[in-house]
Amino acid sequence: MSGRGEQRHRGGRELDRIVFFSDAVFAIAITLLVLDIQVPEISDDLVAEELPAQLLALWPKYFGYVLSFVVIISFWNIHHSIFSDIRGYDRGLIWLNSIFLMFVAFVPFPTSLVSEYGDHQLPVAIYAATLAIGRLLLTLIYWYATSGHRLVDSKLDPQTVRFFLLRGLTILAIFLLTIGISFFSVSIAIYSWLLLIVVDAVILRRRRVRAETY
Question: What is the value of pTM for the model shown?
Answer without folding.
Answer: 0.84
